[in-house]
Every structure is written in structure tokens, then in C-alpha cells.
Amino acid sequence: MERFTGSFTQQEPIPEAGIEAAMAVLRHGRLHRYNVAPGEVAETALLEEEFAAYVGAKYCLALASGGAAMACALRALEVQPGEPVLSNAFTLAPVPGAIASIGARPVFVEVTEDLTLDHGHLESQAEATGARVLLLSHMRGHVCDMDALMALCNRLGLRVIEDCAHTMGARWKGVPSGRHGAIGCYSTQTYKHMNSGEGGFLVTDDAEIAARAVLLSGSYMLYARHRAAPAPEVFEGLKLDVPNVSSRMDNLRAAILRPQIGMLDDRRARWRILYQGMEAGLSGVPGLRLIPRPQAEDYMGSSFQFLLPGWEPARVAAFVAGAAARGVELKWFGAAEPLGFTSRYAHWRYAAPVTLPQTDQVLAGLIDMRLPLTFVPDDVPVIARIIAEEVGKAAGAEALLPVATPVVE
Q1: Are residues 364 and 295 in the same domain?
Q2: Which of 223, 309, 322, 325 could connect to 219 by a Cys-Cys bridge, CB 3.0–4.6 Å?
Q3: How many domains are there within the chain?
Q4: pLDDT grade, residue 159 (50/70/90)?
Q5: Is 365 helix (H, G, I), strand (E, B) or coil?
Q6: 57 domain residue, yes or no
């Protein structure tokens, strides 16, 4: 049988310019974000300025992780302990984790078969809970109709924080992802679109939100050293009331990231080739449903998803195992237990999740796969053939190993 030998977790190396910049920081030893020589501008401050320019934001703050960016955003909007915060039911653990980390209460919203937020359920959840904030996850790079969503949120009085961990570099009708809501948050974790191991950004056009975020990130009253932040007078009425929750990025990671901003558009184009090749290879496979991409969405195809609608758990598990035996690593969001980076809303007991039948039906057959840029276009047909063959085997199998039915809490 044909087998794929590539790695689904191997990323591209850090660009040489990033390595050289990082070595310079290591040699002079000024890693802390405010530790600079006379006349020097910190790498972190330069990174913030450059990323703000890339997405067209007035203000930008670099943080220790994407999760730290979301928690900082929630605090900057003055979300209080016990307050409900709406979010997609289909997301990854750092999103409800950020909500829970400040003592707020995650309230999950159904998702559609297109893997985007269900606007009707959002409206009913907002009205039922009185929530005033939506932490919108563009999960796995799928963006809902942002014009319709923002019109709905404005009518409901919802402030929107966009989790753009999977959409850095993407656009909706030409508008960069993260620029529709009050705040955009991004991740630079290794498997995202820029790589610093861990890291994140917060962007906004609101001066008070930006000032709160800077103070929260641990400015030690050195906010005047920021370049992508409001003027010092904006901080005057806030600086004695906002706590220090030190989480701003250091100069080493900023140095690694700065050259990668200019690579995002090229990476989007290269990912698109892999993604569209996978679409072509899996189109028409019986029992498999592809996720349509709206024309308005200029997406980053760094991962690929498809559905196995109506498949019972044992059949899905057999398919995933068969693909893995041939070197194709797939994630299944309908499994009974969380595995690695794959978990779903029912697994997060701290959030006291309420059963969401529509989302459960979607996730029961949802398959997810990374498309790292270490793949080349010739790899894609091999992966697609293996998936198509294993779908056929599992769909026609008469005897399967028993697998526990997923438990929805």
C-alpha cells in the first residue's frame, strides 16, 4: 500500500534574518522588553509597530502567548468575575481557558456544518445570558460572514474580540482578520503562521483599550517607550487603577518574529496551493463532505478539515487508525477523550458546558489535518489518495473494533 513519509508537525526553519537578529539579542543580553541601551529601540516595540502597520491597526501589543493576548483583551474590556462571555463551541482549549483565567464564565454557541458561528444561536444565547462580550474564534481558519455578524453584534450590544490564531494574514472582503471587532488577538505559537515558539499580539483602534492592555502587560510606567500605543496622556487616568499582569513579549522572540511579518502574504499563497490541491484530491469521494470556502474569504490554508456525515464512532475511529498506519496523521473532534491538541467543548468541565446537539452532530464526524509548509505540492496527491482509500475501506467495512460512543456532558 502507498504510504506517506512526511511529518505533519515539522515547521519551516526560522528565517536567517530572524536567527541573526536573535543572536544579536543574545550577545548583548538585553532580553527584557524595556532593557535597552541609550538611543536603542527595543525589538518588541519595533515588532509591535510593524505588525500594526501590516494589519492596519492604530495600536498593537506583543504578548507572551495567544492565550495571554485573549486574557489581556478580556481584562481590557473590564470583563468581571462570573460574567458570561460568549464563544464558539468549536474552538481549542486556550479560548475558554482565557475566559476562565479571569474568573469569567464561558457560554458556548452552536456552530454550523461550515464550522462557523451559528448567528441565530448567538442571538438567543446573548439574550438569555445578558452577555456583553463575544470572544469569536476563527477556528481552523474558517471565517463567518463578518458583515452580517458585526451588524448582529452591534444590534445586540456585543463587543467582539476576534481570536485570529488561525487567521493571521487572512482577509474578509479585503479587511485583515482581527480588524472587524473591538480587539484582534493573534498567536505566534510554533504551529501558527509566524513562529516564535510561543507569543501573541493584541491590536485595536481604541485608545483606552490599548492603554489598559499596555498597563496590564506590565509597563512599569514605561508606556512612553511604546511606539504602537496611545499618547502618554491617555494613561494618566488609568495608571493607578489597572493591575500589572506581566505578560508582554521579550526582545528575543520579537527579534525572531520581525522578519516573518513580510513573509505572511507569500505563506498564504503557498498554503493556498496545498489546500486547493487537497480539495481537488478529495472532491467527490463518497461519504466525505468538504467545507466550502466563501469567495469573500481570503483564507490561510494551514490546516484542512472535512466531514464524515452520519458515520458512527467505530467507523470514524477505524478510518483514522487506517490513515495513521499509512503515515497520514488526522485529528478527530468527535472522540470520547481528548488527545493531544484535540479536545472539544464537552471536555472542558470547568466551563459547565450545556449540550449543543447541532455542534455535537458536526464534531462527531469532523476530521482535521495540518498542512505544514514543509510539504510540497507533490505530497498532496499522495495524502489525498490515502485518505480516499481509507474512507472507502472504513465505509465498506463489515467488522470493526468496538469503540466507546463519545460522552457528551
Answers
A1: yes
A2: 223
A3: 2
A4: very high
A5: coil
A6: yes
- Tell me: pLDDT of 331 over 80: yes
Burial, 39: exposed, middle or buried (Cβ in 10 Å; 0-12, 13-18, 19+)?
Answer: exposed
- Residue 164 shares a structural domain with residue 253: yes
Q: Per-residue pLDDT for 402 more than 50?
A: no
List the beta bridge partners of residue 297.
172
**According to the 3-state scheme, what is the secondary structure of 120-166?**
HHHHHHHHHHCCCEEEEECHHHCCCCHHHHHHHHHHHCCEEEEECCC
Query: What residues make up the domain containing 303?
Result: 264-396
In a domain, 137, yes or no: yes
**Quick one: 168 exposed, middle or buried, by C-beta within 10 A (0-12, 13-18, 19+)?**
buried
Best CA proximity match to 331, nearest among 370, 302, 299: 370
Is the pTM above the cut of 0.90? yes
Tell me: do 235 and 365 sit in the same domain. Answer: no
Co-location of 119 and 136 in the same domain: yes
| Cell output for 39 | 538611543
The helix (H) or strand (E) run that includes residue 201 is strand 200-204
CATH of the domain at 105: 3.40.640.10
Q: Tell me whether residue 112 is in a domain.
A: yes
DSSP-assigned beta bridge partners for residue 202:
61, 185
How many whole angstroms separate alpha carbon 357 and alpha carbon 360?
5
Same domain membership, residue 61 and residue 210:
yes
Report angle CA 81, 87, 89 to the nearest 5 degrees. Answer: 125
DSSP string of 202-218, one letter each residue: EEES-HHHHHHHHHHTT
DSSP for 249-273, written as a single string: PPHHHHHHHHHHHTTHHHHHHHHHH
